[in-house]
Automatic annotation (TrEMBL), chain B:
UniProt keyword annotations, A-Z: Hydrolase, Lyase
UniProt-recorded Gene Ontology molecular function terms: carboxy-lyase activity; hydrolase activity
Keyword Magnesium: no
GO biological process, any: secondary metabolic process
CC annotations in GO: cytoplasm
InterPro entries, alphabetized: ACMSD, Amidohydro-rel, Metal_Hydrolase
Name the record gives this protein: Amidohydrolase
Gene3D superfamilies: Metal-dependent hydrolases
Length: 243, 252
Protein backbone atom coordinates (compact mmCIF):
# COMPACT_ATOMS: atom_id res chain seq x y z
CA UNK A 1 0.00 0.00 0.00
CA UNK A 2 1.55 3.28 -1.12
CA UNK A 3 -0.17 6.47 0.03
CA UNK A 4 0.97 9.91 -1.08
CA UNK A 5 0.49 12.16 1.96
CA UNK A 6 0.24 15.45 0.10
CA UNK A 7 -0.46 16.82 -3.36
CA UNK A 8 -2.23 20.02 -4.36
CA UNK A 9 -5.02 20.05 -6.96
CA UNK A 10 -6.01 23.09 -8.98
CA UNK A 11 -4.38 26.36 -9.93
CA UNK A 12 -1.35 27.87 -8.24
CA UNK A 13 1.53 30.13 -9.16
CA UNK A 14 3.93 28.60 -11.69
CA UNK A 15 1.69 25.67 -12.55
CA UNK A 16 -1.06 23.50 -11.18
CA UNK A 17 -2.25 19.90 -11.18
CA UNK A 18 -5.44 18.34 -12.54
CA UNK A 19 -7.09 15.22 -11.17
CA UNK A 20 -6.61 13.35 -14.45
CA UNK A 21 -2.87 13.99 -14.47
CA UNK A 22 -2.59 12.97 -10.82
CA UNK A 23 -4.40 9.66 -11.36
CA UNK A 24 -2.29 8.92 -14.45
CA UNK A 25 0.86 9.50 -12.39
CA UNK A 26 -0.45 7.31 -9.55
CA UNK A 27 -1.21 4.49 -12.00
CA UNK A 28 2.23 4.78 -13.60
CA UNK A 29 4.08 4.77 -10.27
CA UNK A 30 1.91 2.24 -8.43
CA UNK A 31 0.63 4.74 -5.85
CA UNK A 32 -2.60 3.36 -4.40
CA UNK A 33 -4.03 6.44 -2.70
CA UNK A 34 -3.25 10.13 -2.49
CA UNK A 35 -4.31 12.85 -0.09
CA UNK A 36 -5.37 15.83 -2.16
CA UNK A 37 -5.33 19.41 -0.90
CA UNK A 38 -6.71 22.47 -2.68
CA UNK A 39 -4.10 24.42 -4.64
CA UNK A 40 -2.46 27.71 -3.77
CA UNK A 41 -5.28 29.93 -5.06
CA UNK A 42 -7.85 28.03 -3.04
CA UNK A 43 -5.68 27.74 0.06
CA UNK A 44 -5.03 31.46 0.17
CA UNK A 45 -8.36 32.80 -1.08
CA UNK A 46 -11.08 30.59 -2.55
CA UNK A 47 -11.34 28.03 0.26
CA UNK A 48 -14.86 26.98 -0.64
CA UNK A 49 -14.08 26.46 -4.32
CA UNK A 50 -11.03 24.40 -3.46
CA UNK A 51 -12.83 22.27 -0.90
CA UNK A 52 -15.62 21.62 -3.38
CA UNK A 53 -13.12 20.56 -6.02
CA UNK A 54 -11.15 18.12 -3.86
CA UNK A 55 -14.19 16.58 -2.16
CA UNK A 56 -15.90 16.08 -5.52
CA UNK A 57 -12.76 14.48 -6.96
CA UNK A 58 -12.49 12.20 -3.94
CA UNK A 59 -16.14 11.21 -4.11
CA UNK A 60 -15.65 10.15 -7.73
CA UNK A 61 -12.44 8.23 -7.04
CA UNK A 62 -13.74 5.10 -5.35
CA UNK A 63 -11.74 5.84 -2.22
CA UNK A 64 -8.46 6.41 -4.00
CA UNK A 65 -8.27 10.12 -3.31
CA UNK A 66 -8.59 11.44 0.25
CA UNK A 67 -9.42 15.13 0.55
CA UNK A 68 -7.91 17.72 2.83
CA UNK A 69 -9.99 20.78 3.71
CA UNK A 70 -8.59 24.30 3.83
CA UNK A 71 -9.88 27.47 5.47
CA UNK A 72 -8.07 30.72 6.06
CA UNK A 73 -7.75 31.10 9.86
CA UNK A 74 -8.37 34.86 9.56
CA UNK A 75 -12.01 34.02 8.78
CA UNK A 76 -12.30 32.74 12.38
CA UNK A 77 -15.82 31.34 12.92
CA UNK A 78 -16.51 31.30 9.20
CA UNK A 79 -13.35 29.22 8.72
CA UNK A 80 -14.61 26.58 11.13
CA UNK A 81 -17.99 26.63 9.39
CA UNK A 82 -16.25 26.06 6.06
CA UNK A 83 -14.39 23.09 7.51
CA UNK A 84 -17.67 21.66 8.75
CA UNK A 85 -19.18 22.08 5.29
CA UNK A 86 -16.15 20.33 3.77
CA UNK A 87 -16.41 17.52 6.31
CA UNK A 88 -20.01 16.96 5.29
CA UNK A 89 -18.73 16.58 1.73
CA UNK A 90 -16.13 14.02 2.74
CA UNK A 91 -13.00 15.93 3.84
CA UNK A 92 -10.82 13.81 6.14
CA UNK A 93 -7.88 16.02 7.09
CA UNK A 94 -6.90 19.67 7.54
CA UNK A 95 -4.14 21.43 5.56
CA UNK A 96 -2.78 24.80 6.63
CA UNK A 97 -0.06 26.97 5.15
CA UNK A 98 1.22 29.83 7.34
CA UNK A 99 3.01 31.47 4.40
CA UNK A 100 0.02 31.47 2.04
CA UNK A 101 -2.56 32.21 4.72
CA UNK A 102 -0.62 34.82 6.70
CA UNK A 103 -0.53 33.69 10.30
CA UNK A 104 2.01 32.64 12.91
CA UNK A 105 1.81 29.08 14.13
CA UNK A 106 1.66 30.21 17.75
CA UNK A 107 -0.49 33.36 17.45
CA UNK A 108 -3.74 31.51 18.22
CA UNK A 109 -5.45 32.15 14.89
CA UNK A 110 -5.23 28.52 13.80
CA UNK A 111 -6.36 27.03 17.12
CA UNK A 112 -10.12 26.99 16.38
CA UNK A 113 -9.32 25.03 13.21
CA UNK A 114 -7.23 22.59 15.23
CA UNK A 115 -10.07 22.17 17.72
CA UNK A 116 -12.30 21.25 14.82
CA UNK A 117 -9.71 18.80 13.47
CA UNK A 118 -9.46 17.20 16.90
CA UNK A 119 -13.22 16.87 17.18
CA UNK A 120 -13.28 15.32 13.70
CA UNK A 121 -10.36 12.92 14.22
CA UNK A 122 -8.42 14.56 11.37
CA UNK A 123 -4.65 14.66 10.93
CA UNK A 124 -3.21 18.09 10.18
CA UNK A 125 -0.72 18.93 7.41
CA UNK A 126 1.33 22.10 7.94
CA UNK A 127 3.54 23.40 5.16
CA UNK A 128 6.97 24.27 6.59
CA UNK A 129 10.15 25.75 5.13
CA UNK A 130 12.25 28.86 5.55
CA UNK A 131 9.58 31.57 6.05
CA UNK A 132 10.13 32.56 9.70
CA UNK A 133 6.52 31.84 10.61
CA UNK A 134 6.64 28.39 8.99
CA UNK A 135 9.79 26.83 10.44
CA UNK A 136 9.75 23.44 12.19
CA UNK A 137 10.30 24.23 15.88
CA UNK A 138 7.26 26.48 16.47
CA UNK A 139 5.23 23.75 14.80
CA UNK A 140 6.57 21.31 17.38
CA UNK A 141 5.45 23.66 20.16
CA UNK A 142 2.02 23.93 18.54
CA UNK A 143 1.84 20.13 18.30
CA UNK A 144 2.63 19.87 22.02
CA UNK A 145 -0.37 22.12 22.74
CA UNK A 146 -2.54 19.61 20.85
CA UNK A 147 -1.13 16.26 21.95
CA UNK A 148 -4.01 14.16 20.63
CA UNK A 149 -3.70 15.59 17.10
CA UNK A 150 -1.24 14.14 14.55
CA UNK A 151 0.68 16.82 12.65
CA UNK A 152 2.56 16.23 9.38
CA UNK A 153 5.52 18.61 9.01
CA UNK A 154 5.05 19.28 5.30
CA UNK A 155 8.44 19.46 3.50
CA UNK A 156 10.21 18.90 6.84
CA UNK A 157 11.68 22.40 6.75
CA UNK A 158 13.27 22.04 3.30
CA UNK A 159 15.92 22.96 2.81
CA UNK A 160 17.93 25.08 5.26
CA UNK A 161 15.57 24.25 8.13
CA UNK A 162 16.16 20.52 7.73
CA UNK A 163 18.63 21.29 10.51
CA UNK A 164 15.66 21.99 12.82
CA UNK A 165 13.52 19.06 11.72
CA UNK A 166 14.99 16.36 13.99
CA UNK A 167 14.93 18.61 17.09
CA UNK A 168 11.29 19.42 16.27
CA UNK A 169 10.42 15.73 15.91
CA UNK A 170 12.10 14.96 19.21
CA UNK A 171 10.19 17.79 20.92
CA UNK A 172 6.73 16.65 19.80
CA UNK A 173 5.98 12.93 19.57
CA UNK A 174 2.76 13.65 17.64
CA UNK A 175 4.73 15.35 14.82
CA UNK A 176 5.55 13.37 11.65
CA UNK A 177 8.21 14.11 9.05
CA UNK A 178 7.38 14.41 5.34
CA UNK A 179 9.83 12.89 2.83
CA UNK A 180 9.40 15.35 -0.04
CA UNK A 181 12.70 16.85 -1.28
CA UNK A 182 14.66 15.15 1.54
CA UNK A 183 17.58 12.92 0.50
CA UNK A 184 17.60 9.53 2.18
CA UNK A 185 21.39 9.62 2.49
CA UNK A 186 21.39 12.79 4.61
CA UNK A 187 18.06 13.93 6.08
CA UNK A 188 15.87 10.83 6.17
CA UNK A 189 18.61 8.59 7.56
CA UNK A 190 19.03 11.03 10.43
CA UNK A 191 15.35 10.67 11.29
CA UNK A 192 15.36 6.89 10.98
CA UNK A 193 18.42 6.21 13.12
CA UNK A 194 17.37 8.56 15.93
CA UNK A 195 15.91 6.43 18.74
CA UNK A 196 13.50 9.26 19.62
CA UNK A 197 12.18 9.48 16.04
CA UNK A 198 12.55 6.38 13.84
CA UNK A 199 11.16 5.51 10.41
CA UNK A 200 7.70 5.12 11.94
CA UNK A 201 7.48 8.92 12.22
CA UNK A 202 8.22 9.54 8.52
CA UNK A 203 5.50 9.68 5.83
CA UNK A 204 5.96 9.67 2.08
CA UNK A 205 4.65 12.49 -0.07
CA UNK A 206 5.32 13.64 -3.62
CA UNK A 207 4.25 17.26 -2.99
CA UNK A 208 3.06 17.37 -6.61
CA UNK A 209 2.89 19.56 -8.65
CA UNK A 210 6.10 21.10 -7.31
CA UNK A 211 8.25 17.99 -7.82
CA UNK A 212 9.05 15.13 -10.15
CA UNK A 213 6.87 12.44 -8.49
CA UNK A 214 8.87 9.51 -9.87
CA UNK A 215 12.02 10.99 -8.31
CA UNK A 216 10.27 11.47 -4.97
CA UNK A 217 9.17 7.81 -4.93
CA UNK A 218 12.54 6.53 -6.17
CA UNK A 219 14.28 8.16 -3.22
CA UNK A 220 12.18 6.04 -0.85
CA UNK A 221 12.49 2.80 -2.82
CA UNK A 222 16.27 3.35 -3.11
CA UNK A 223 16.61 3.96 0.65
CA UNK A 224 18.30 0.91 2.23
CA UNK A 225 16.00 0.33 5.22
CA UNK A 226 14.19 -2.80 6.43
CA UNK A 227 11.05 -3.70 4.48
CA UNK A 228 8.82 -3.08 7.49
CA UNK A 229 10.19 0.44 7.85
CA UNK A 230 9.72 1.15 4.15
CA UNK A 231 6.14 -0.09 4.31
CA UNK A 232 5.50 2.25 7.23
CA UNK A 233 6.99 5.23 5.37
CA UNK A 234 5.18 4.51 2.13
CA UNK A 235 1.73 4.25 3.68
CA UNK A 236 1.42 2.18 6.83
CA UNK A 237 1.84 5.07 9.24
CA UNK A 238 -0.45 7.40 7.33
CA UNK A 239 -3.13 4.72 7.04
CA UNK A 240 -3.07 4.43 10.83
CA UNK A 241 -3.32 8.21 11.24
CA UNK A 242 -6.32 8.34 8.91
CA UNK A 243 -8.08 5.58 10.83
CA UNK B 1 28.19 18.27 -18.33
CA UNK B 2 29.50 20.54 -15.57
CA UNK B 3 28.31 20.35 -11.96
CA UNK B 4 28.71 23.89 -10.57
CA UNK B 5 28.19 23.07 -6.87
CA UNK B 6 29.97 20.20 -5.09
CA UNK B 7 31.97 19.81 -1.87
CA UNK B 8 35.03 18.03 -0.60
CA UNK B 9 34.54 15.79 2.44
CA UNK B 10 34.73 17.39 5.87
CA UNK B 11 38.14 16.31 7.05
CA UNK B 12 38.30 18.33 10.26
CA UNK B 13 34.72 19.22 11.14
CA UNK B 14 31.93 17.34 12.86
CA UNK B 15 28.65 19.06 12.02
CA UNK B 16 24.99 18.26 11.61
CA UNK B 17 25.66 17.74 7.92
CA UNK B 18 27.62 14.58 8.73
CA UNK B 19 28.75 13.03 5.49
CA UNK B 20 31.00 10.16 4.49
CA UNK B 21 34.64 10.78 3.80
CA UNK B 22 35.96 9.93 0.34
CA UNK B 23 39.09 10.28 -1.73
CA UNK B 24 39.42 12.25 -4.91
CA UNK B 25 39.42 9.10 -7.04
CA UNK B 26 36.13 8.02 -5.47
CA UNK B 27 34.75 11.46 -6.21
CA UNK B 28 35.82 11.28 -9.84
CA UNK B 29 34.20 7.83 -9.91
CA UNK B 30 30.94 9.41 -8.80
CA UNK B 31 31.32 12.02 -11.53
CA UNK B 32 31.95 9.33 -14.15
CA UNK B 33 28.89 7.38 -13.02
CA UNK B 34 26.76 10.51 -13.45
CA UNK B 35 28.46 11.59 -16.70
CA UNK B 36 29.74 14.77 -15.04
CA UNK B 37 32.84 15.91 -16.93
CA UNK B 38 33.87 18.79 -14.68
CA UNK B 39 32.87 20.03 -11.23
CA UNK B 40 33.23 23.18 -9.17
CA UNK B 41 34.45 21.94 -5.78
CA UNK B 42 33.89 23.94 -2.59
CA UNK B 43 35.47 23.35 0.79
CA UNK B 44 33.31 21.55 3.35
CA UNK B 45 35.44 22.38 6.42
CA UNK B 46 35.65 25.96 5.17
CA UNK B 47 31.90 26.39 5.57
CA UNK B 48 32.40 26.23 9.31
CA UNK B 49 36.02 27.25 9.71
CA UNK B 50 37.24 29.30 6.75
CA UNK B 51 40.99 29.02 7.28
CA UNK B 52 44.02 28.93 4.97
CA UNK B 53 44.36 25.26 5.93
CA UNK B 54 40.90 24.58 4.51
CA UNK B 55 41.99 26.25 1.25
CA UNK B 56 45.24 24.25 1.21
CA UNK B 57 43.33 20.99 1.57
CA UNK B 58 40.81 21.96 -1.08
CA UNK B 59 43.62 22.90 -3.47
CA UNK B 60 45.35 19.56 -2.88
CA UNK B 61 42.08 17.74 -3.63
CA UNK B 62 41.39 19.47 -6.96
CA UNK B 63 45.06 19.40 -8.01
CA UNK B 64 44.77 15.62 -8.55
CA UNK B 65 42.50 16.25 -11.56
CA UNK B 66 42.99 19.83 -12.72
CA UNK B 67 41.24 19.14 -16.00
CA UNK B 68 38.07 18.04 -14.20
CA UNK B 69 37.97 19.84 -10.83
CA UNK B 70 37.91 23.60 -10.23
CA UNK B 71 38.34 24.68 -6.62
CA UNK B 72 36.63 27.70 -5.05
CA UNK B 73 38.26 28.75 -1.75
CA UNK B 74 36.85 30.75 1.11
CA UNK B 75 37.82 33.32 3.75
CA UNK B 76 36.50 35.05 6.84
CA UNK B 77 35.93 38.52 5.33
CA UNK B 78 36.69 40.45 8.53
CA UNK B 79 39.96 38.61 9.14
CA UNK B 80 42.90 41.06 8.73
CA UNK B 81 44.61 38.48 6.50
CA UNK B 82 41.55 37.87 4.28
CA UNK B 83 42.79 40.00 1.37
CA UNK B 84 46.22 38.35 1.41
CA UNK B 85 44.60 34.92 1.64
CA UNK B 86 42.41 35.77 -1.35
CA UNK B 87 45.53 36.71 -3.34
CA UNK B 88 47.13 33.41 -2.31
CA UNK B 89 44.03 31.47 -3.40
CA UNK B 90 44.28 32.75 -6.96
CA UNK B 91 48.09 32.80 -7.10
CA UNK B 92 49.89 30.03 -5.28
CA UNK B 93 46.87 27.73 -4.92
CA UNK B 94 45.49 28.10 -8.44
CA UNK B 95 41.86 28.25 -7.34
CA UNK B 96 39.19 29.57 -9.71
CA UNK B 97 36.73 31.25 -7.41
CA UNK B 98 35.54 32.27 -3.97
CA UNK B 99 32.72 30.56 -2.08
CA UNK B 100 30.92 32.48 0.65
CA UNK B 101 28.21 31.18 2.97
CA UNK B 102 27.01 34.33 4.76
CA UNK B 103 24.65 32.75 7.28
CA UNK B 104 27.00 29.95 8.27
CA UNK B 105 30.11 32.11 8.25
CA UNK B 106 28.36 34.99 10.00
CA UNK B 107 28.56 38.19 7.98
CA UNK B 108 26.37 40.42 5.84
CA UNK B 109 26.98 41.01 2.15
CA UNK B 110 26.82 44.75 2.85
CA UNK B 111 29.98 44.78 5.01
CA UNK B 112 32.78 46.94 3.50
CA UNK B 113 35.36 44.28 4.37
CA UNK B 114 34.07 42.31 1.37
CA UNK B 115 34.96 45.01 -1.16
CA UNK B 116 38.76 44.64 -1.37
CA UNK B 117 38.29 40.85 -1.41
CA UNK B 118 35.87 41.08 -4.32
CA UNK B 119 38.26 43.36 -6.21
CA UNK B 120 41.00 40.72 -5.87
CA UNK B 121 38.64 38.01 -7.16
CA UNK B 122 37.54 40.21 -10.07
CA UNK B 123 41.12 41.19 -10.88
CA UNK B 124 42.15 37.55 -10.99
CA UNK B 125 39.28 36.80 -13.38
CA UNK B 126 37.67 34.63 -10.72
CA UNK B 127 34.05 33.88 -9.83
CA UNK B 128 32.19 34.51 -6.57
CA UNK B 129 29.62 31.88 -5.58
CA UNK B 130 27.43 32.49 -2.54
CA UNK B 131 24.98 30.33 -0.67
CA UNK B 132 21.54 31.82 -1.14
CA UNK B 133 17.86 31.24 -0.45
CA UNK B 134 17.87 31.78 3.28
CA UNK B 135 17.35 34.75 5.57
CA UNK B 136 18.80 36.59 7.37
CA UNK B 137 22.07 36.99 5.43
CA UNK B 138 21.68 34.95 2.23
CA UNK B 139 18.75 36.38 0.31
CA UNK B 140 19.18 36.83 -3.44
CA UNK B 141 18.63 40.59 -3.26
CA UNK B 142 21.36 40.96 -0.62
CA UNK B 143 23.76 39.09 -2.89
CA UNK B 144 22.62 41.16 -5.88
CA UNK B 145 23.49 44.31 -3.91
CA UNK B 146 27.07 43.04 -3.59
CA UNK B 147 27.11 42.19 -7.29
CA UNK B 148 26.08 45.79 -8.11
CA UNK B 149 29.06 47.10 -6.11
CA UNK B 150 31.40 44.92 -8.21
CA UNK B 151 30.03 44.95 -11.75
CA UNK B 152 33.11 43.23 -13.26
CA UNK B 153 32.77 40.25 -10.92
CA UNK B 154 30.61 37.27 -11.96
CA UNK B 155 28.48 36.42 -8.92
CA UNK B 156 26.59 33.13 -8.72
CA UNK B 157 23.56 32.45 -6.53
CA UNK B 158 24.58 28.98 -5.38
CA UNK B 159 21.06 27.60 -4.81
CA UNK B 160 18.72 29.58 -7.09
CA UNK B 161 16.74 30.87 -4.09
CA UNK B 162 15.84 27.36 -2.84
CA UNK B 163 12.14 26.83 -2.03
CA UNK B 164 11.00 30.16 -0.71
CA UNK B 165 13.12 32.79 -2.48
CA UNK B 166 13.45 31.35 -5.98
CA UNK B 167 11.18 34.01 -7.47
CA UNK B 168 13.41 36.68 -5.92
CA UNK B 169 16.48 34.86 -7.27
CA UNK B 170 14.98 34.87 -10.74
CA UNK B 171 14.09 38.56 -10.54
CA UNK B 172 17.58 39.51 -9.30
CA UNK B 173 19.19 37.49 -12.10
CA UNK B 174 17.03 39.32 -14.61
CA UNK B 175 17.88 42.80 -13.29
CA UNK B 176 21.56 42.36 -12.37
CA UNK B 177 23.89 41.95 -15.37
CA UNK B 178 26.70 40.13 -13.52
CA UNK B 179 24.47 37.86 -11.40
CA UNK B 180 24.08 34.18 -12.36
CA UNK B 181 21.88 31.47 -10.88
CA UNK B 182 22.80 27.87 -10.06
CA UNK B 183 19.83 25.52 -9.74
CA UNK B 184 20.88 23.36 -6.78
CA UNK B 185 18.30 22.11 -4.30
CA UNK B 186 15.79 24.37 -6.05
CA UNK B 187 12.47 22.51 -6.52
CA UNK B 188 11.68 21.22 -10.03
CA UNK B 189 8.71 23.54 -10.72
CA UNK B 190 10.94 26.49 -9.85
CA UNK B 191 13.73 25.19 -12.08
CA UNK B 192 11.29 24.92 -14.98
CA UNK B 193 10.10 28.51 -14.51
CA UNK B 194 13.63 29.87 -14.04
CA UNK B 195 14.81 28.21 -17.24
CA UNK B 196 11.87 29.66 -19.14
CA UNK B 197 12.24 33.22 -17.84
CA UNK B 198 15.88 33.91 -16.87
CA UNK B 199 18.41 35.19 -19.40
CA UNK B 200 19.31 31.96 -21.20
CA UNK B 201 23.05 32.31 -20.68
CA UNK B 202 22.82 32.75 -16.90
CA UNK B 203 21.45 29.47 -15.57
CA UNK B 204 23.76 26.78 -14.15
CA UNK B 205 23.19 23.46 -12.38
CA UNK B 206 24.73 21.89 -9.27
CA UNK B 207 24.14 18.74 -7.23
CA UNK B 208 25.64 19.81 -3.86
CA UNK B 209 27.47 16.45 -3.95
CA UNK B 210 29.89 15.67 -1.14
CA UNK B 211 27.55 15.88 1.85
CA UNK B 212 26.04 12.38 1.58
CA UNK B 213 26.37 9.62 4.16
CA UNK B 214 27.46 7.46 1.21
CA UNK B 215 30.69 7.96 -0.77
CA UNK B 216 28.60 7.22 -3.87
CA UNK B 217 26.71 10.50 -3.28
CA UNK B 218 23.33 8.93 -3.94
CA UNK B 219 21.24 12.10 -3.62
CA UNK B 220 23.48 13.92 -6.07
CA UNK B 221 23.11 11.12 -8.62
CA UNK B 222 19.33 11.27 -8.07
CA UNK B 223 19.35 15.03 -8.69
CA UNK B 224 21.02 14.49 -12.06
CA UNK B 225 18.46 11.82 -13.01
CA UNK B 226 15.61 14.06 -11.85
CA UNK B 227 16.38 16.60 -14.60
CA UNK B 228 14.74 14.18 -17.05
CA UNK B 229 11.42 14.91 -15.32
CA UNK B 230 11.67 18.70 -15.18
CA UNK B 231 9.94 19.23 -18.51
CA UNK B 232 12.59 21.48 -20.06
CA UNK B 233 13.80 21.69 -23.64
CA UNK B 234 16.96 20.04 -24.90
CA UNK B 235 18.32 23.50 -25.64
CA UNK B 236 17.69 24.73 -22.09
CA UNK B 237 19.30 21.59 -20.70
CA UNK B 238 22.38 21.93 -22.86
CA UNK B 239 22.82 25.60 -21.98
CA UNK B 240 22.46 24.87 -18.24
CA UNK B 241 24.71 21.81 -18.10
CA UNK B 242 27.30 22.52 -20.77
CA UNK B 243 27.49 25.92 -22.46
CA UNK B 244 26.86 28.33 -19.58
CA UNK B 245 29.15 26.77 -16.98
CA UNK B 246 31.90 26.22 -19.55
CA UNK B 247 31.75 29.87 -20.62
CA UNK B 248 32.08 31.04 -17.02
CA UNK B 249 34.74 28.56 -15.93
CA UNK B 250 36.87 28.86 -19.04
CA UNK B 251 37.07 32.61 -18.53
CA UNK B 252 38.20 32.15 -14.91
Amino acid sequence: MIIDAHVRIGPGRSGGLGVGELVETMDRLGIDRAMIAPGEYATAWDNRGGNDQVTAAAAASGGRLVPYAVANPWARGDAVAELARARDRGARALAVDPALQGFDLLDGLVDPLLAFAQESGWPVYVRTGSPPHAVPLPLASLARRWPSLAFVMGRSGATDFWIDAAPALRHAPNLYADTSYAPWDTVLSEFARDPEIGAGRVVFSTDAPYTVPSAELARITDWPIPDDDRAAVLGGTLERLLD
Amino acid sequence: MIDFHTHTPAWNTVSWLGGATFGVEEFVGFMDACEIDRAVVLSHDGLFNPTPKANDELAAFVRAHPDRLAGFGTVTPRDPDAVAETERMFGELGLKGMKLHPWLQGFSMHEPALDPICEIVAGAGGILLSHDGTPPYSTPSQIAALARRHPRLPVVLGHGGLHDLWREALAMTQETPNLYLCICGTPPYAARTILAEAPAHKVLFGTDAGLSDQASQDYAAARVREIDGWGITAQQRHAMLVENPARLLDAA
